[in-house]
What we know:
Helix content: 40-55%
Number of strands: 3
Oligomer: single chain
Radius of gyration: 26 Å
Structural class: alpha+beta
Amino acid sequence: MIELSLKEYATKHKISIxxxxxxxxxxxxxSETRMKDGKPEIIILTDEAPQVKAVETEEMDYKKAxxxxxxKYDALLRSGNGK
Length: 83
């Protein structure tokens, strides 16, 4: 279970903090109130797994790719289509 603050939840779901607070108090989203520094703080509870970004592991030969694009560019210039 992941615990998020109101601000973190609002940012993640692109809604206002006020609307997040209304959803929590209405019971639309799972939450609990905890005391932090003598003040009540609403914590949002989610069952989502943290998202891991896929890392591209394929190595690219930039020099080879550049030379291929350069050939296409030169061909366009010779044909008169590129200026």
